[in-house]
């Protein structure tokens, strides 16, 4: 039966696709681990702005490197710095802002 043969072929294709995905997942994890290792030795994390404590009781405590990073503030700051460097010329930051409206 041709229909049955077609189903078997489709199932084999699905199985081969899942095998390819399972082979790429470990490779992706290896790449991510290598990137994490490289970032741990860099000073990049020190450049991020962090949330400031809201209460006065935390002023006496030293600033902890594990404080949460203010992602929104860092994003806006990076985009504004990029726009400044572009000096009114087209570039990634102005293109992103243009697409946002």
TrEMBL record:
Residues 12-33 have a biased composition (Acidic residues). This is Uncharacterized protein. GO terms for cellular component: nucleus. Residues 41-56 have a biased composition (Polar residues). Residues 1-68 are annotated as: Disordered. InterPro entries: Ecd.
